[in-house]
From TrEMBL:
Organism listed in the record: Streptomyces glaucosporus
Residue ranges crossing the lipid bilayer per the database entry: none
Biological classification of the source: Bacteria, Bacillati, Actinomycetota, Actinomycetes, Kitasatosporales
One Pfam short name: ABATE
Record's protein name: CGNR zinc finger domain-containing protein
PANTHER family assigned: BLL6575 PROTEIN
Start and end residues of each Zinc finger CGNR domain: 137-176
Positions in coiled-coil regions: none
Amino acid sequence: MNTTFIQGGLRGDLVDALSTPADLDLWVEEHAEALPRELAERASASATAFHLEEFRRLREALRELSRACTAEEPYDEQAVTVVNRGARLAVNWPELGRPGEPGPVVRWAETDPYLALLGVVAVSGVELLAGPHRHDVRACAAPGCILYFVRAHRRREWCTPGCGNRVRVARHHDRRRT
Ligand SMILES: [Zn+2]
């Protein structure tokens, strides 16, 4: 969800870090630690325009659902369909390894590693937006910021310390002007 953001504050530019298939490969590489290792390894720099489009669609759906979540509105049916369809791509099960192989071996129903990875992201979206932490999803309160975050403590208002600093600096300038 954070692959699109505003760079440069209130009058900044909208950045889309998922603009090309190579961007998607970079994302997989940068998040490999948080993803099933076997999928991340199989998805080695071969993302296509189709994969990119699917990930972008999931991102838009998750952003819309996060917006509805923070606004305490019901979830949009179309966005729910996109996420649920994605979640089904994450079907996997453990199998015993072959003799001499350390088991268990995880098998994935979806053979395309990018689509299986999309499934993993969709499942984490379901767990967030339908789980107990959904009440902690917040939109960043900094002007010009479009990010969502899960607040770890009650008073957190910003997605990152950077946004918090930006707001404090702006307030300081406002006070000096008045
Ligand atoms: Zn922010």
